[in-house]
Automatic annotation (TrEMBL):
Subcellular location: Membrane
Protein name as catalogued: P-type ATPase A domain-containing protein
CC terms in the record's Gene Ontology section: plasma membrane
Annotated transmembrane regions: 12-31, 165-186, 206-236
InterPro entries: ATPase_P-typ_cyto_dom_N (IPR023299), ATPase_P-typ_P_site (IPR018303), ATPase_P-typ_TM_dom_sf (IPR023298), ATPase_P-typ_transduc_dom_A_sf (IPR008250), ATPase_P-type_domA (IPR059000), HAD_sf (IPR023214), P_typ_ATPase (IPR001757)
Residue span, P-type ATPase A domain: 46-144
Keywords, ordered alphabetically: Magnesium, Membrane, Transmembrane, Transmembrane helix
Species name: Prunus yedoensis var. nudiflora
Length: 361
């Protein structure tokens, strides 16, 4: 420290370089993850809803909704804002995202409240938007969750404890070393009888003693420790990405790794949410139809006229749909009960689109 430039700058530049390296690695990892989440946010913002505004029905992004708009909701739609039921029929709302209860809520003129973030499980309706954005119940809930602030992670707490202990020990030895060196200088001056006369060289010697004490404090704290921790967390984040788990912040990896107890809550029974028709009573016969073989046996045992009426009833008296998704696979839309009955109709050999087209003709 007293050697001047450039010889005396080695230690200082080394410490600055190690700090910059830690900051750079952390910032790069967090930035890459933020880009991943930014892409996800863009995809989530592409949701559009049917809205009546200024007397015209149109498609709008859920982020362009305003109080006073009339939103048209049907099976499978997410309620985009808080609002009031205007008109509709058989509206069942799944509010499990807000309340945790899996039992759907019936919404009508008596109970007209629709909440943002819930899902339409059955029926269709028109909703008058009353509040949007952070003023909705969902927005208030998110604001409450974010009020807690940034608590220190378990690893940060441990590292702070270790750094404090190392700092105290280093400071203790630095003070002892400085005191011993200064005492040695005073003893020598006393023996020589020149303790009242001080020269510039002796003042510089005391300054060197102080530099030695500061060096002890600096060397006691390992500069490579933050870098090692950051690199290990970045490696853990990479491993989680390989398992298709995105992590927004590096600290989340070690926070979850330090978890000793995971508390979970469930309401009702955990199922695959897939209902099927297992028994049918047709023409006075009770048959097991839980498999394709049982359904084909039933279709061969009942008269063609009865089978035709049954398929007409299944495919026309429903709010569900049989569609082909972008992967070319057949997908059933509707409530679990409707999809079960539609699947039963298809096992009997029925064609949803042909039956609907025939009915319109």
């Amino acid at each position: 420290m007293t050697e001047g430039w450039p010889k005396g700058a080695h230690d200082g530049l080394g410490i600055v370089a190690s700090i910059l390296l830690v900051v750079f690695v952390t910032a790069t990892s967090d930035y890459k993850q933020s880009l991943q989440f930014k892409d996800l946010e863009k995809e989530k913002k592409k949701i559009t809803v049917q809205v009546t505004r200024d007397g015209f029905r149109q498609k709008l992004s859920i982020y362009d909704l305003l109080p006073g708009d009339i939103v048209h909701l049907s099976i499978g739609d997410l309620v985009p804002a808080d609002g009031l039921f205007v008109s509709g029929f058989s509206v069942l709302i799944n509010e499990s995202s807000l309340t945790g209860e899996s039992e759907p809520v019936n919404v009508n003129s008596v109970n007209p409240f629709l909440l943002s973030g819930t899902k339409v499980q059955d029926g269709s309706c028109k909703m008058l938007v009353t509040t949007v954005g952070m003023r909705t119940q969902w927005g208030k809930l998110m604001a409450t969750l974010s009020e807690g602030g940034d608590d220190e992670t378990p690893l940060q707490v441990k590292l702070n404890g270790v750094a404090t202990i190392i700092g105290k020990i280093g400071l203790f030895f630095a003070v002892v070393t400085f005191a011993v060196l200064v005492q040695g200088l005073f003893s020598r001056k006393l023996q020589e009888g020149s303790h009242l006369i001080w020269s510039g060289d002796e003042a510089l010697e005391i300054l060197e003693f102080f530099a030695i004490a500061v060096t002890i404090v600096v060397v006691a704290v390992p500069e490579g420790l933050p870098l090692a921790v950051t690199l290990s967390l970045a490696f853990a984040m990479k491993k989680m990405m390989n398992d298709r788990a995105l992590v927004r912040h590096l600290a989340a990896c070690e926070t979850m790794g330090s978890a000793t107890t995971i508390c979970s809550d469930k309401t009702g029974t955990l199922t695959t949410n897939h209902m099927t028709v297992v028994k049918a009573c047709i023409c006075g016969k009770i048959k097991d139809v839980g498999t394709s073989e049982g359904a084909s046996n039933l279709s061969s045992e009942i008269p063609d006229s009865s089978l035709r009426v049954l398929l007409q009833s299944i495919f026309n008296n429903t709010g569900g749909e049989v569609v082909t998704n972008k992967d070319g696979k057949i997908e059933l839309l509707g409530t679990p009960t409707e999809t079960a009955i539609l699947e039963f109709g298809m096992l009997l050999g029925g064609d949803f689109k042909a039956e609907r087209k025939h009915q319109r003709l």
